[in-house]
Amino acid sequence: xxxxxxxxxxxxxxxxxxxxxxxxxxxxxxxxxxxxxxxxxxxxxxxxxxxxxxxxxxxxxxxxxxxxxxxxxxxxxxxxxxxxxxxxxxxxxxxxxxxxxxxxxxxxxxxxxxxxxxxxxxxxxxxxxxxxxxxxxxxxxxxxxxxxxxxxxxxxxxxxxxxxxxxxxxxxxxxxxxxxxxxxxxxxxxxxxxxxxxxxxxxxxxxxxxxx
Length: 212
Hints:
The protein is of the alpha/beta class.
């Protein structure tokens, strides 16, 4: 598939048209809306139009990293599976699920935390996509604070009730390119949808300018 060719199935495009009609006017920038629309398509939840947040330059940084084929680290296998098809159609970045890297967790940590920290030590400039484990996001934020290294992008979309909001607040405090979901909502499908939307933007707008 050549760069600039459409990646979305016609049914997906039809769904996008329905979403566009139902939303009408909004305040998001073009590329922010493209990401929000894919998440809404995945979840059928229009609240994501307001729950998704973007740091300055986050989308540009994510697109640049995807085009440079930097590794993508997910917290769990479900997020990795959710981006595999789109990766094979586009830039074919290496995708690694942190939880799958370790058989036994470090003392006092979960396997996902342990794997996430190992991945950051190996790929500090990678893209990090968290859709399930707030403890992994907290550990990643803490390691970044200690190291002063900046990943290319962090997508923070863990879901649930324990440490979820706290992990997102920790991410918001970091001076790194980031996209996150406010509050308790999120999940592996949401995290994958955000990354897939970035892949589409990176592929179909290869010569486009930034600040979209």
